[in-house]
Amino acid sequence: MESLLEIKGLSKSFDLHNLDKHIRAVSDIDIQVKEGEFVGITGKSGSGKSTILKCLYGTYRIQEGSISYESKAFGPLNLAEATERQMLYLRKHEIGYVSQFLNVMPRTTARQLVKQAILEMGENQQLAELETEKILAHFELDPALWDSYPATFSGGEKLRLNIARAMVKKPRLLLLDEPTASLDQESKMKVKLLIEQLMKEGTTILGIFHDLEFMNHLCDREYNMQDGVFSYSTKFTNF
After folding, report:
1. What is the DSSP letter of 169?
2. Where in the cell (predicted)?
């Protein structure tokens, strides 16, 4: 398998001017993710895990290092140097991101959010409608909520909607930032089923998890982080 993603020497710092502090979030991170792999990152809260994903997604700009990504549209691309237009395209068509938080436009219903994600991939209205209802039903969101605004949803409902919106696009690369944090066991299993399906269809996944049991039989390799650096990595050969 060829590498879809290769991170070399990634470092990210933050300056807190009001406190006159310089904080090193991650230092000299190296990760190679082959096409079709599921690579997990574990570690305590505040160890720098989410910073890596935000650098990949373009939310943060890095000070040092490179993020080589094999884009279907652009070919080999260093995400650390990608233009805003390129990153917007990749977010719409190739790279999905799921976090614990749902940031949406006001006055946009759950159905509209998921449907719009499918339409961005170039699908027609009829298929988008069918796929929207299919995935909302999979995550057992009450049909009475489909045409409601997510601002009224519980935390678990918002998270399930966030996952549905990202996964329905079947991205080339999926970034998962604690996607099961506030879900019950049944909902976690539904997420796991979709991850397994996406992997069979070729999606590559880089994910952050505290729930090690959830990662069982999914993860090919695990990187453990402590204080912004990798303390060890484990390759699972029984998956």
Report:
1. T
2. Cell membrane
